[in-house]
Each structure stands twice: as C-alpha cells, then as structure tokens.
Amino acid sequence: MPTKTLRIPTTDGQADAFAAFPDHGEPHPGVLMYADGFGIRPVLREMARELAEHGYYVLVPNLFYRHGPAPLIELPEHIGAEARPALMAQLMPLIAAHTAERVRRDADAYLGFLTTQPEVAAGPVAVTGYCIGGLLAMRTAAAHPGQVAAVAAFHGPVGADGPDTLAEITAQVHFGHAESDLTPEALSELNRALDAAKVDYTSEIYPGTVHGFTMSDTDAFDPAGLQRHWDRLLPLLDRTLTNS
Question: Is-contact 36 132, C-beta < 8 A?
Fold first, then answer.
C-alpha cells in the first residue's frame, strides 16, 4: 500500500498531509478525510490505508497546520480518561481558532490539491470526517456542491451551522452519531432539518456508542461501532464514486 507525506499549498502557508492509495497503476476516486481533534497519528494513517485498500486515494490533512506540523501535541499511545482533560486543554484553543472562514479556504486548497494528483481519477470526490472533522466535512460539501458527491461524518457536531449549511448540500450524506452525543429527540430534529433541506441522507445513532467510538487508540473505542461505520461508508462511496 503506497503512502506519501505531502505538503499542500494554501493561502495561509503549507499544510502537511498523509495520503494512502492503491498500488495499481490506474487513477482512483479521491476521498478527503478530516481527522478528529487529536489529528494525524497512527490510527488515522491505518484508517486511511484501510479505506485505500477498497480502491480510493485518501488524503488526510493536518487541520491545524498554521500552528505547526503534526503532531502538534504529544499524545500517549492510548488516550484514556486521565489524559483527556489535559490534552483537550491544549487542543481547544486550536479548534476555536479554526473558524468557518479558515475551513472554507482550506477546503478549496485541499480539494484543488486532491483532484490534481496523478493517482486521482477525474470526477466527483467524497469527504469524510470524525468528531470536529465531521463538521469540517459538512462545511466542505456545502462549499463545493458540484464537486463533492458524498459526505460521511461520524460522532461529529454536524448540525452546528444550522439549516443554511444543510440547504447547500447536494451530496449523498451519512451521519453516524454516538449514542452519548445525541438523544432520539435531537436526532429527530436534525433529520427533520435534513428533510426540509431536501438532503439525500441516512442519519442514525449507533447503539451503545460514546463520542469518539471509531478511534481505536481511545477509551471511547467500540469495535462494533467502527465496523458499522465501514458498513455504511463503503457502500456510500461505491454508489457515488465508483459507479458515478
């Protein structure tokens, strides 16, 4: 499985990034993968490689490149409850500084870079994201409705921008919510907003999960939740990219 460490030119500098793609000679559909707040690390590289094995070029940018290359903070091998408060204290100022305007500027750069890579096929792309990356995926899809054919977000604050962002979405959408993040009532409210915006979507609470359930290096990890994530993500990409 070929991988690369890359630098993406942006209006604010150079974003370091990780890419994984199949070792076949032909180009493959592109997927922009937004990490959670803990950023690029072994578990994200492994998830990118696993997705690439299904026939995609996967690009994972360092969201907080303005503050330095990844890793920005020292992470333990396993992110448990004891370590989390101190880590989040370091990360929250970076997340707060990552405004919607910055997200849109970066999305322009990331998609422009992704679609010009020789290993990436012409045509639409997909965007997926985890935790805060799910919100970034939504903002990217809203800003590039003609280019993003699919968006998937897992345990992310996907409704944070309200109905205006939903109304801009033309991609097919999947939301996989943690049970600890969303009540059934909140899910119904979100789904009504998606219906009103005429979004083609699936949106569900993954049973028994807590926030961060896809990340195997955290105490939130749920193997069944991660598998459900793949079971939803892969058919979505197959419908929208492989058969487009």
Answer: yes
